[in-house]
Amino acid sequence: MQFIDLAAQYQHLKTKIDARIHKVLDHGHYIMGPEVFELEEQLAEYVGVKHAITCANGTDALTLAMMVLDIKEGDAVFCPTFTFFATAETIAFANATPVFVDSEESTFNICPADLEKRIQQVIAEGKLVPKAIVSVDLFGLPANYVEIEAIAEKYNLKLIEDAAQGFGGSLNGKMAGAFGDIATTSFFPAKPLGCYGDGGAIFTNNDDYAELLRSLRIHGKGLDKYDNVRIGVNSRLDTIQAAVLLEKLAEFPVELELRNRIADIYTRELPTELIKPILPESYQSSWAQYTVRTEDREALMNTCRNAGIPVMVYYRTCMHQQTAFGHLEYRVGDFPVAEKLASEVLSLPLHPYLPEEEQLNLISSVV
Ligand SMILES: *Cc1c(COP(=O)(O)O)cnc(C)c1O
Q1: Does any domain span residue 292?
Q2: Domain total for the chain?
Q3: What is d(CA 138, CA 111) in angstroms, rounded to the nearest whole number?
Q4: Which residue of 235, 260, 302, 323 has the lowest C-beta tally within 10 Å?
């Protein structure tokens, strides 16, 4: 059994993916070929935004978003402490200061009440300029954008949606990737929509941001990449990866249903001693991970190991506990919910090609 079976997915889509890749090999436009632009149109349509701009990976997508929003030294950018490193890393990489926020126990996502508290603290201290919020759609579930958008508006902050895991999820019928001023995603192979290498995208309804992003990702280009009107980066999605993604995106709605079916079976069949993830009303999840909680995680991991069930811990270390952020001088106990989650979470195998009888066997060996 695989935690995420990318080989099974490839076998399912092999004929189509191979043909698409060969088309690129035949036309030879390996960088910014027609598939890149075709994919951007389809991504924008799927997410329901005006512009999708692809780039080299989900981390660059966040960095490009920071550049567009002019996030810089002296700025405070609020983000959850319970997330993948790139969320906070890109804030620091822009020379701004990440201000961490505790999580909501039931959804694993950024806690709006704690967010507002930390914004008020930064204002009261008067050392940093509150500039933006990066909210994360952790494990596939969109964050609470109803409350987060209201807070962003109240304090005049920019909002970036880190939808690296959320792509495919939705809230009140609005797709992940469509929230905030700018949203980002990742096509890392293990994400809900992944390619065969690194890849990423940025979503926005703002025409000016979109134009800027298209320049920034190619060395701050003006008319072309030899006319440079600003300092940018080199962050493009390879044409071959766009070709792979075009075929995977076509299959994505079907895979999303399968992911939801598998999540439903876990929720129905797993023993009640495990705390299972919830799906609040009007939310859809892309189920990037199916993450349970237990106070005795070591015992559960041992059981899984002995039964040959691959499991992962996302995430054992919160951002405020990372060595790289030691200089921010947070202490153990500063984020009680996130720290509790980090000590209790365990993610189970979930991918669209997990056969039901294998899943049921897995569940019975966990009981
Ligand atoms: C994966 C991930 C990223 C970074 O994406 P890469 O493509 O690996 O650079 C950023 N944020 C979150 C929440 C992620 O899960």
Answers
A1: yes
A2: 2
A3: 12
A4: 323
